Amino acid sequence: MFKKILGTGLTRVLNLLIGFATMLMGTKVLGAAEWGIGFTVLTDVTFLLIGVEFIVGGGLVYFTSRKPLSTLMKVSYGWIVLVMAFYVLAFWILSYFPDLSDSIVPRGYEWITLLLTFVYSFHNFNLNILLGKEKVGTYNWVFLLQILVQVGTMALLIFVFHLKDARAFVYSLLCGYVVALLAGLTQVLPMLNRGESKPILATAKEMLAYNSVIVLTSLVSILNRRLSVFMLRQKYTDNDKEVGVYGTGTQVGEAVKVFGVSIAMVQFSHLSNLKDKDEAVNLTIKFLKISVILTFIALLVLACLPVSFFEWIFSKEFGQVKQIILLMAPGMLFYSAHSIFTHYFSGTGVPKYNLFASLVGLGVTLPCTLTMIPHWGIFGAAASFSATFLAIMLYQWFVFRRIAGVRAKNLLLTKEDWTWCKEEFYAIFAKNKN
User: Fold this and answer.
1) Residue range of the domain that includes 280
2) HEC string of 55-117?
3) pTM (predicted TM-score)
Protein backbone atom coordinates (compact mmCIF):
# COMPACT_ATOMS: atom_id res chain seq x y z
CA MET A 1 0.00 0.00 0.00
CA PHE A 2 2.86 2.39 0.79
CA LYS A 3 4.18 1.79 -2.70
CA LYS A 4 0.94 3.17 -4.14
CA ILE A 5 1.07 6.11 -1.75
CA LEU A 6 4.68 6.85 -2.67
CA GLY A 7 3.90 6.59 -6.37
CA THR A 8 0.92 8.90 -5.99
CA GLY A 9 2.95 11.23 -3.77
CA LEU A 10 5.80 11.45 -6.27
CA THR A 11 3.30 12.19 -9.03
CA ARG A 12 1.77 14.96 -6.92
CA VAL A 13 5.21 16.38 -6.12
CA LEU A 14 5.96 16.50 -9.83
CA ASN A 15 2.58 18.17 -10.23
CA LEU A 16 3.65 20.77 -7.68
CA LEU A 17 6.92 21.43 -9.48
CA ILE A 18 5.17 21.71 -12.82
CA GLY A 19 2.46 23.86 -11.25
CA PHE A 20 5.22 26.03 -9.85
CA ALA A 21 6.69 26.43 -13.33
CA THR A 22 3.22 27.35 -14.58
CA MET A 23 2.85 29.95 -11.83
CA LEU A 24 6.24 31.42 -12.68
CA MET A 25 5.20 31.91 -16.29
CA GLY A 26 1.79 33.18 -15.25
CA THR A 27 3.00 35.67 -12.66
CA LYS A 28 6.23 36.90 -14.25
CA VAL A 29 5.19 36.94 -17.92
CA LEU A 30 1.41 37.34 -17.91
CA GLY A 31 1.16 39.55 -14.80
CA ALA A 32 -1.26 39.51 -11.89
CA ALA A 33 -4.34 40.66 -13.87
CA GLU A 34 -4.09 38.08 -16.70
CA TRP A 35 -3.13 35.37 -14.23
CA GLY A 36 -6.24 36.30 -12.25
CA ILE A 37 -8.40 35.80 -15.34
CA GLY A 38 -6.89 32.36 -15.94
CA PHE A 39 -7.42 31.39 -12.29
CA THR A 40 -11.06 32.50 -12.53
CA VAL A 41 -11.64 30.36 -15.66
CA LEU A 42 -10.21 27.34 -13.86
CA THR A 43 -12.51 28.05 -10.90
CA ASP A 44 -15.51 28.30 -13.26
CA VAL A 45 -14.66 24.92 -14.81
CA THR A 46 -14.49 23.42 -11.31
CA PHE A 47 -17.99 24.69 -10.57
CA LEU A 48 -19.42 23.47 -13.88
CA LEU A 49 -18.01 19.99 -13.33
CA ILE A 50 -20.32 19.67 -10.33
CA GLY A 51 -23.29 18.99 -12.62
CA VAL A 52 -21.37 16.28 -14.47
CA GLU A 53 -20.24 14.63 -11.24
CA PHE A 54 -23.77 13.60 -10.29
CA ILE A 55 -22.86 10.55 -12.38
CA VAL A 56 -19.17 10.86 -13.31
CA GLY A 57 -17.80 11.96 -9.93
CA GLY A 58 -15.96 10.20 -7.12
CA GLY A 59 -18.91 7.87 -6.59
CA LEU A 60 -17.95 6.20 -9.86
CA VAL A 61 -14.96 4.71 -8.01
CA TYR A 62 -17.41 2.97 -5.67
CA PHE A 63 -19.45 1.49 -8.56
CA THR A 64 -16.50 0.33 -10.67
CA SER A 65 -16.19 -2.92 -8.70
CA ARG A 66 -19.98 -3.37 -8.60
CA LYS A 67 -21.22 -2.64 -12.14
CA PRO A 68 -20.08 -3.65 -15.66
CA LEU A 69 -17.80 -1.06 -17.25
CA SER A 70 -19.90 -1.00 -20.44
CA THR A 71 -22.97 0.04 -18.45
CA LEU A 72 -21.04 2.68 -16.49
CA MET A 73 -19.68 4.09 -19.75
CA LYS A 74 -23.10 4.34 -21.42
CA VAL A 75 -24.66 6.01 -18.39
CA SER A 76 -21.74 8.38 -17.87
CA TYR A 77 -21.32 9.45 -21.50
CA GLY A 78 -25.05 10.05 -21.88
CA TRP A 79 -25.11 12.14 -18.72
CA ILE A 80 -22.15 14.28 -19.86
CA VAL A 81 -23.88 15.12 -23.14
CA LEU A 82 -27.14 15.94 -21.33
CA VAL A 83 -25.49 18.23 -18.78
CA MET A 84 -23.37 20.01 -21.37
CA ALA A 85 -26.44 20.69 -23.52
CA PHE A 86 -28.01 22.36 -20.47
CA TYR A 87 -24.86 24.44 -19.89
CA VAL A 88 -24.78 25.62 -23.51
CA LEU A 89 -28.39 26.78 -23.20
CA ALA A 90 -27.65 28.50 -19.87
CA PHE A 91 -24.63 30.34 -21.29
CA TRP A 92 -26.62 31.44 -24.35
CA ILE A 93 -29.31 32.92 -22.10
CA LEU A 94 -26.63 34.48 -19.89
CA SER A 95 -25.13 36.25 -22.92
CA TYR A 96 -28.17 38.55 -22.94
CA PHE A 97 -27.18 39.79 -19.48
CA PRO A 98 -23.55 40.89 -19.99
CA ASP A 99 -23.08 42.46 -16.55
CA LEU A 100 -24.14 39.25 -14.81
CA SER A 101 -22.14 37.13 -17.24
CA ASP A 102 -18.94 39.15 -16.69
CA SER A 103 -19.24 38.73 -12.92
CA ILE A 104 -19.23 34.93 -13.36
CA VAL A 105 -17.01 34.22 -16.37
CA PRO A 106 -14.31 36.57 -17.77
CA ARG A 107 -15.51 38.22 -20.98
CA GLY A 108 -14.42 36.33 -24.10
CA TYR A 109 -13.80 33.07 -22.24
CA GLU A 110 -17.36 31.75 -22.04
CA TRP A 111 -17.21 29.08 -24.75
CA ILE A 112 -13.67 27.91 -24.03
CA THR A 113 -14.81 27.41 -20.43
CA LEU A 114 -17.59 25.13 -21.67
CA LEU A 115 -15.18 23.23 -23.93
CA LEU A 116 -12.75 22.70 -21.04
CA THR A 117 -15.60 21.32 -18.92
CA PHE A 118 -16.74 19.00 -21.71
CA VAL A 119 -13.29 17.50 -22.36
CA TYR A 120 -12.36 17.18 -18.69
CA SER A 121 -15.63 15.34 -17.98
CA PHE A 122 -14.57 12.41 -20.20
CA HIS A 123 -11.02 12.57 -18.86
CA ASN A 124 -12.40 12.45 -15.31
CA PHE A 125 -14.43 9.34 -16.20
CA ASN A 126 -11.22 7.56 -17.20
CA LEU A 127 -9.42 8.61 -14.03
CA ASN A 128 -12.21 7.40 -11.75
CA ILE A 129 -12.45 4.06 -13.53
CA LEU A 130 -8.69 3.52 -13.14
CA LEU A 131 -8.91 4.43 -9.46
CA GLY A 132 -11.89 2.13 -8.94
CA LYS A 133 -9.94 -0.74 -10.52
CA GLU A 134 -7.06 0.08 -8.14
CA LYS A 135 -4.86 0.90 -11.15
CA VAL A 136 -3.21 3.63 -9.11
CA GLY A 137 0.05 3.53 -11.08
CA THR A 138 -1.77 3.97 -14.39
CA TYR A 139 -3.88 6.73 -12.85
CA ASN A 140 -0.70 8.51 -11.81
CA TRP A 141 0.99 8.46 -15.21
CA VAL A 142 -2.15 9.64 -17.02
CA PHE A 143 -2.45 12.49 -14.53
CA LEU A 144 1.25 13.27 -14.92
CA LEU A 145 0.92 13.32 -18.70
CA GLN A 146 -1.86 15.88 -18.39
CA ILE A 147 0.20 18.35 -16.37
CA LEU A 148 3.34 17.83 -18.47
CA VAL A 149 1.44 18.68 -21.65
CA GLN A 150 -0.12 21.68 -19.92
CA VAL A 151 3.15 23.28 -18.87
CA GLY A 152 4.84 22.42 -22.18
CA THR A 153 2.03 23.95 -24.22
CA MET A 154 1.97 27.08 -22.06
CA ALA A 155 5.71 27.57 -22.50
CA LEU A 156 5.36 27.08 -26.26
CA LEU A 157 2.52 29.60 -26.53
CA ILE A 158 4.34 32.22 -24.47
CA PHE A 159 7.92 31.96 -25.67
CA VAL A 160 7.48 30.73 -29.26
CA PHE A 161 4.13 32.17 -30.32
CA HIS A 162 4.41 35.21 -27.98
CA LEU A 163 0.87 34.80 -26.63
CA LYS A 164 1.24 36.72 -23.36
CA ASP A 165 -2.24 36.89 -21.88
CA ALA A 166 -4.61 34.54 -20.07
CA ARG A 167 -5.25 32.57 -23.26
CA ALA A 168 -1.80 30.99 -22.96
CA PHE A 169 -2.85 29.36 -19.67
CA VAL A 170 -6.39 28.48 -20.77
CA TYR A 171 -5.32 26.92 -24.09
CA SER A 172 -2.63 24.91 -22.30
CA LEU A 173 -5.30 23.47 -19.99
CA LEU A 174 -7.29 22.35 -23.03
CA CYS A 175 -4.28 20.65 -24.62
CA GLY A 176 -3.46 18.86 -21.39
CA TYR A 177 -7.02 17.62 -20.98
CA VAL A 178 -7.29 16.38 -24.59
CA VAL A 179 -3.99 14.45 -24.56
CA ALA A 180 -4.72 12.91 -21.14
CA LEU A 181 -8.23 11.94 -22.28
CA LEU A 182 -6.84 10.04 -25.26
CA ALA A 183 -4.16 8.38 -23.14
CA GLY A 184 -6.74 7.35 -20.55
CA LEU A 185 -8.93 5.80 -23.21
CA THR A 186 -6.09 3.53 -24.29
CA GLN A 187 -6.08 2.10 -20.76
CA VAL A 188 -9.83 1.96 -20.11
CA LEU A 189 -11.11 0.55 -23.40
CA PRO A 190 -9.20 -2.77 -23.09
CA MET A 191 -11.07 -3.39 -19.80
CA LEU A 192 -14.39 -3.16 -21.63
CA ASN A 193 -16.33 -6.41 -21.79
CA ARG A 194 -19.10 -5.86 -24.29
CA GLY A 195 -20.91 -9.02 -23.23
CA GLU A 196 -21.67 -7.66 -19.78
CA SER A 197 -24.55 -5.28 -19.22
CA LYS A 198 -27.00 -3.99 -16.64
CA PRO A 199 -30.22 -2.00 -17.13
CA ILE A 200 -29.06 1.53 -17.96
CA LEU A 201 -31.97 3.41 -16.38
CA ALA A 202 -31.84 1.42 -13.14
CA THR A 203 -28.08 1.89 -12.94
CA ALA A 204 -28.41 5.63 -13.57
CA LYS A 205 -30.96 5.93 -10.76
CA GLU A 206 -28.74 3.99 -8.37
CA MET A 207 -25.71 6.10 -9.26
CA LEU A 208 -27.67 9.33 -8.91
CA ALA A 209 -28.96 8.27 -5.51
CA TYR A 210 -25.45 7.48 -4.29
CA ASN A 211 -23.62 10.29 -6.08
CA SER A 212 -26.11 13.03 -5.26
CA VAL A 213 -24.86 13.17 -1.69
CA ILE A 214 -21.22 13.21 -2.83
CA VAL A 215 -21.85 15.86 -5.47
CA LEU A 216 -23.81 18.11 -3.15
CA THR A 217 -20.89 17.71 -0.77
CA SER A 218 -18.47 18.68 -3.54
CA LEU A 219 -20.58 21.69 -4.45
CA VAL A 220 -20.69 22.97 -0.90
CA SER A 221 -17.00 22.12 -0.45
CA ILE A 222 -16.06 24.11 -3.55
CA LEU A 223 -18.15 27.01 -2.29
CA ASN A 224 -16.24 26.78 0.97
CA ARG A 225 -12.92 26.97 -0.89
CA ARG A 226 -13.72 29.22 -3.85
CA LEU A 227 -16.61 31.49 -2.87
CA SER A 228 -13.97 34.00 -1.84
CA VAL A 229 -12.80 34.28 -5.47
CA PHE A 230 -16.22 35.52 -6.58
CA MET A 231 -16.48 37.81 -3.56
CA LEU A 232 -13.11 39.31 -4.44
CA ARG A 233 -14.23 39.86 -8.04
CA GLN A 234 -17.17 41.84 -6.68
CA LYS A 235 -14.95 43.87 -4.36
CA TYR A 236 -12.27 44.60 -6.96
CA THR A 237 -14.48 45.31 -9.98
CA ASP A 238 -12.55 45.55 -13.27
CA ASN A 239 -9.33 44.64 -11.47
CA ASP A 240 -8.22 41.01 -11.66
CA LYS A 241 -4.86 41.77 -10.06
CA GLU A 242 -6.03 41.08 -6.50
CA VAL A 243 -7.61 37.80 -7.61
CA GLY A 244 -4.31 36.88 -9.24
CA VAL A 245 -2.37 37.58 -6.05
CA TYR A 246 -4.87 35.65 -3.93
CA GLY A 247 -4.93 32.78 -6.43
CA THR A 248 -1.15 32.52 -6.31
CA GLY A 249 -1.18 32.55 -2.52
CA THR A 250 -3.79 29.80 -2.36
CA GLN A 251 -1.96 27.66 -4.91
CA VAL A 252 1.31 27.91 -3.00
CA GLY A 253 -0.43 27.32 0.33
CA GLU A 254 -2.47 24.44 -1.01
CA ALA A 255 0.69 22.79 -2.34
CA VAL A 256 0.95 21.03 1.02
CA LYS A 257 -2.24 19.15 0.12
CA VAL A 258 0.05 16.76 -1.76
CA PHE A 259 0.39 14.59 1.36
CA GLY A 260 -3.27 14.40 2.37
CA VAL A 261 -4.52 14.00 -1.20
CA SER A 262 -2.00 11.27 -2.08
CA ILE A 263 -2.77 9.27 1.04
CA ALA A 264 -6.54 9.79 0.83
CA MET A 265 -6.65 8.72 -2.82
CA VAL A 266 -5.07 5.35 -2.08
CA GLN A 267 -7.20 5.08 1.07
CA PHE A 268 -10.43 5.63 -0.90
CA SER A 269 -9.46 3.15 -3.60
CA HIS A 270 -8.64 0.51 -0.97
CA LEU A 271 -11.61 1.10 1.33
CA SER A 272 -14.06 0.95 -1.60
CA ASN A 273 -13.00 -2.69 -2.07
CA LEU A 274 -12.64 -3.54 1.64
CA LYS A 275 -15.24 -5.41 3.73
CA ASP A 276 -13.55 -5.40 7.16
CA LYS A 277 -14.80 -2.32 9.07
CA ASP A 278 -12.21 -2.61 11.83
CA GLU A 279 -9.38 -2.65 9.32
CA ALA A 280 -10.90 0.40 7.63
CA VAL A 281 -10.88 2.30 10.93
CA ASN A 282 -7.32 1.28 11.80
CA LEU A 283 -5.99 2.26 8.38
CA THR A 284 -7.81 5.59 8.54
CA ILE A 285 -6.25 6.47 11.90
CA LYS A 286 -2.77 5.54 10.67
CA PHE A 287 -3.22 7.58 7.49
CA LEU A 288 -4.57 10.50 9.51
CA LYS A 289 -1.45 10.66 11.65
CA ILE A 290 0.92 10.48 8.68
CA SER A 291 -1.02 13.09 6.70
CA VAL A 292 -1.16 15.65 9.52
CA ILE A 293 2.51 15.25 10.48
CA LEU A 294 3.82 15.60 6.92
CA THR A 295 1.53 18.57 6.24
CA PHE A 296 2.70 20.31 9.41
CA ILE A 297 6.36 19.93 8.42
CA ALA A 298 5.67 21.31 4.93
CA LEU A 299 3.75 24.29 6.37
CA LEU A 300 6.61 25.01 8.75
CA VAL A 301 9.02 25.22 5.82
CA LEU A 302 6.70 27.59 3.92
CA ALA A 303 6.25 29.80 7.00
CA CYS A 304 10.01 30.25 7.31
CA LEU A 305 10.41 31.66 3.79
CA PRO A 306 10.78 35.49 3.77
CA VAL A 307 8.58 37.91 1.82
CA SER A 308 11.56 38.76 -0.39
CA PHE A 309 11.65 35.15 -1.57
CA PHE A 310 8.12 35.32 -2.97
CA GLU A 311 8.79 38.74 -4.54
CA TRP A 312 11.91 37.31 -6.18
CA ILE A 313 10.07 34.23 -7.43
CA PHE A 314 6.83 35.82 -8.65
CA SER A 315 7.71 39.58 -8.93
CA LYS A 316 7.03 42.58 -6.72
CA GLU A 317 3.30 42.42 -7.46
CA PHE A 318 3.07 39.26 -5.33
CA GLY A 319 4.66 40.43 -2.06
CA GLN A 320 1.43 39.74 -0.15
CA VAL A 321 1.58 36.02 -0.95
CA LYS A 322 3.49 35.28 2.29
CA GLN A 323 0.74 36.81 4.45
CA ILE A 324 -1.92 34.83 2.61
CA ILE A 325 0.01 31.60 3.21
CA LEU A 326 0.37 32.31 6.93
CA LEU A 327 -3.34 32.99 7.29
CA MET A 328 -4.22 29.83 5.35
CA ALA A 329 -1.70 27.59 7.15
CA PRO A 330 -4.03 26.47 10.00
CA GLY A 331 -6.74 25.75 7.46
CA MET A 332 -4.39 23.58 5.38
CA LEU A 333 -3.51 21.53 8.47
CA PHE A 334 -7.21 21.04 9.19
CA TYR A 335 -7.73 20.22 5.50
CA SER A 336 -5.20 17.37 5.66
CA ALA A 337 -7.29 15.69 8.37
CA HIS A 338 -10.52 16.54 6.54
CA SER A 339 -9.30 14.68 3.41
CA ILE A 340 -8.72 11.47 5.36
CA PHE A 341 -12.10 11.63 7.14
CA THR A 342 -13.89 12.43 3.87
CA HIS A 343 -12.49 9.41 2.05
CA TYR A 344 -13.24 7.17 5.02
CA PHE A 345 -16.93 8.13 4.95
CA SER A 346 -17.14 7.82 1.14
CA GLY A 347 -15.18 4.57 0.99
CA THR A 348 -17.34 2.92 3.66
CA GLY A 349 -20.63 3.94 2.06
CA VAL A 350 -21.75 6.76 4.37
CA PRO A 351 -20.98 9.91 2.32
CA LYS A 352 -23.88 11.79 3.93
CA TYR A 353 -21.59 12.83 6.79
CA ASN A 354 -19.33 14.62 4.31
CA LEU A 355 -22.33 16.61 3.12
CA PHE A 356 -23.26 17.55 6.67
CA ALA A 357 -19.64 18.56 7.35
CA SER A 358 -19.56 20.75 4.24
CA LEU A 359 -22.83 22.42 5.28
CA VAL A 360 -21.28 23.12 8.68
CA GLY A 361 -18.36 24.69 6.82
CA LEU A 362 -20.68 26.75 4.63
CA GLY A 363 -22.34 28.04 7.79
CA VAL A 364 -18.92 29.47 8.67
CA THR A 365 -17.86 30.47 5.14
CA LEU A 366 -20.83 32.72 4.40
CA PRO A 367 -20.61 35.04 7.41
CA CYS A 368 -16.80 35.07 7.28
CA THR A 369 -16.55 36.01 3.60
CA LEU A 370 -19.39 38.53 3.85
CA THR A 371 -17.75 40.32 6.78
CA MET A 372 -14.02 39.73 6.33
CA ILE A 373 -13.53 40.30 2.59
CA PRO A 374 -15.21 43.77 2.50
CA HIS A 375 -12.91 44.89 5.33
CA TRP A 376 -9.66 43.00 4.74
CA GLY A 377 -9.85 41.88 1.11
CA ILE A 378 -7.55 38.99 0.21
CA PHE A 379 -6.42 38.60 3.83
CA GLY A 380 -10.02 38.21 4.95
CA ALA A 381 -10.50 35.53 2.30
CA ALA A 382 -7.47 33.59 3.58
CA ALA A 383 -8.60 33.84 7.22
CA SER A 384 -12.08 32.65 6.20
CA PHE A 385 -10.53 29.53 4.68
CA SER A 386 -8.89 28.56 7.98
CA ALA A 387 -12.04 29.19 10.03
CA THR A 388 -14.11 27.09 7.63
CA PHE A 389 -11.92 24.01 7.71
CA LEU A 390 -11.52 24.14 11.46
CA ALA A 391 -15.30 23.77 11.75
CA ILE A 392 -15.43 21.00 9.11
CA MET A 393 -12.62 19.00 10.66
CA LEU A 394 -14.11 19.19 14.16
CA TYR A 395 -17.50 17.96 12.95
CA GLN A 396 -15.96 15.05 11.02
CA TRP A 397 -13.83 14.05 13.99
CA PHE A 398 -16.84 13.89 16.33
CA VAL A 399 -18.79 11.76 13.83
CA PHE A 400 -15.82 9.47 13.14
CA ARG A 401 -15.22 9.05 16.86
CA ARG A 402 -18.84 8.01 17.39
CA ILE A 403 -19.04 5.62 14.42
CA ALA A 404 -15.60 4.04 14.83
CA GLY A 405 -15.64 3.94 18.63
CA VAL A 406 -12.25 5.64 18.97
CA ARG A 407 -10.97 8.26 21.38
CA ALA A 408 -8.61 11.21 21.18
CA LYS A 409 -5.81 9.13 22.67
CA ASN A 410 -5.95 6.90 19.57
CA LEU A 411 -4.53 9.83 17.60
CA LEU A 412 -1.25 9.74 19.54
CA LEU A 413 1.73 8.15 17.82
CA THR A 414 2.56 4.69 19.14
CA LYS A 415 5.33 2.12 18.70
CA GLU A 416 2.87 0.08 16.67
CA ASP A 417 2.56 2.96 14.18
CA TRP A 418 6.34 3.16 13.74
CA THR A 419 6.57 -0.61 13.35
CA TRP A 420 3.82 -0.60 10.74
CA CYS A 421 5.54 2.18 8.77
CA LYS A 422 8.87 0.31 8.86
CA GLU A 423 7.26 -2.91 7.69
CA GLU A 424 5.53 -1.14 4.80
CA PHE A 425 8.80 0.48 3.69
CA TYR A 426 10.73 -2.77 4.02
CA ALA A 427 8.04 -4.47 1.94
CA ILE A 428 8.61 -1.95 -0.85
CA PHE A 429 12.35 -2.57 -0.93
CA ALA A 430 11.88 -6.33 -0.68
CA LYS A 431 9.56 -6.31 -3.71
CA ASN A 432 12.00 -4.17 -5.67
CA LYS A 433 14.84 -6.62 -4.95
CA ASN A 434 12.74 -9.49 -6.13
Assistant:
1) 2-433
2) HHCCHHHHHHCCCCHHHHHHHHHHHHHHHHHHHHHHHHHHCCCHHHHHHHCCCCCHHHHHHHH
3) 0.66
